[in-house]
Known about the structure:
The chain has helices at about 340-345, 380-385, and strands spanning about 5, 25-30, 40-45, 50-55, 75, 90-95, 100-105, 110-115, 120-125, 130-135, 135-140, 145-150, 155, 165-170, 210-220, 225-230, 235-240, 245-250, 270, 275-280, 285, 305-310, 325-330, 350, 355-360, 365, 390-395, 400-405. It is mainly β. The chain has a domain at about 255-385: Jelly Rolls. The strands form 7 sheets. Strands 18-12-9-14-7-6-26 form a 7-stranded antiparallel beta sheet, with no helix packed on it. Bound molecules: fe (ii) ion. The site of fe (ii) ion (FE2) has 5 residues, from loops.
Amino acid sequence: MHYRSVGDVPAKRHLRTPAPGGGLLFEELMGEEGFSGDSSLLYHLRSPSALVGAAHVDVTAGALVANEPLLPRHLRTSGLPPGGDASGGRHLLLGNDDVRISWVAADRTGPLWRNAVGDELAYVQAGEGDLESVFGRLAVRAGDYVVVPRSATCRWVVPDGGRLELLVVEASGHVRPPRRYLSPAGQFLEQAPYCERDIRAPEEPLVTTGEGPAEVLVRHRDGVSRHTLASSPFDVVGWAGCVYPWAFSILDFEPIVGAIHQPPHVHQTFEGPGFVVCSFVPRPYDFHAGAIKVPYHHANVDSDEVIFYSAGDFMSRAGSGIGVGSISVHPSGFVHGPQPGSMEATAGQDRTEEVAVMVDTFRPLRLGPAAASVTDDDYPWSWVRSVPLVSETVPTRSGSADQKPADAG
Ligand SMILES: [Fe+2]
C-alpha cells in the first residue's frame, strides 16, 4: 500500500525519542521479505517483546478432505451456526496449502489475534464493527473488503447486540492489488478499477496506556499459541509506512464492461500466493445487440473457482438454487457455464445488480469440516434439471429417472 504516517512520528527514524511520561519510545519495524520489502515503523510506549507467558492452544480445526468424487458444489452459509467471535468462530469451508476460506457470523468481540501465517482478507457480508489493531481503529461495514497484514495484532470488535458476517480468506503470504494496476512507484494507474481515494486505513493510534498483562492468540505455521504480554500491544503512539490494515467497499470497485462478455480478469481486485480475488458489482450488461450476457461455458484448467453470492440476483445461476449467501465451487476438471435458460433470460435486460466475490485458486481446493452440513446435494445436477422444457425425463444422482416439471429459470 501507499505510504501513510499516523499519530506522533519522529522526523527521523532510529534515533532516541522521548516517551510521554519519561523514558524512550520503543520502535518496532514490521517488515516483509526480511528488511527488503514494504514495512511500517511503529512507536510503542513499552517493549512489544515483553513476553511473560506462553501456552499451546488446542484448536480442533478438522481435516480437509478431497473433493472426491469430483463435483461442482453449492454451500449455503445460511445453514452454518451463527455466533462466536470473528477469529475463533470461523467455520472452515474450503482450503489448500495456499488459502483457507471460512465463514463466521460473529456476535461478540474477539480476543487479541495475530495471524503469523499470512495476510487475512475479510469480506463483510452484513453488520458493522471495528478492526482494532496496533495501527488504530478501522471501522468496517457491509460490502467492505478488509485486508489485515500478516502478524498485525488485532481484535475484531462487534457492538453489543450486533452481528458481523464475514467471508474470510486466510492467505499463506501477502494479499495485494494486482501488480498490473500499479506504477513502478506503487501508484494506482488510470486503468485500475479502484485507487487510493477508495481506500480507508486507521487514522489515529489507539494509544492504550492501561497496564497488562494482555493475551494474544498467535496462529503460526504449526498451530495456535497463547502469548501473554506484560502490557497491551495497542500502546502505539504513532506509525509510518506501507504495511497496515486497509479497507474499501466493493461498491467503490468501478466495473469495466464491453460490447461482448469481458473475461473475469477485468474484475480482478486482489492477488495472493496461489489465488486471485475478483469482484462482480452492479453494472450494465454487455451492449452488443446480439450479446450473450452471461458467461460462456468455461473450463478453467488451472484453477478451482469459488464464488460467494453477496447481493442481487444471479442470472447465470438461475434455477440452480443459488441465492444470497451461497458459495459455488467449480473445480478444475469440470466444465461449467450458465444454467439452462439463463442465456435467453437476459435478452431483454440491460443491467445486473449482482454483487459477488470470486476466489480462484491455482491448486485444488479441499473441503473443510463445515462444508458437508451445508452442501446442496442437488446442485451438481442443476444444469440438467433446469432445462426449460415443459416436461422431460432427467437422470438423478443415483442414475434412476425422475419426472421434473418445467423450470424456466
Ligand atoms: Fe466460472
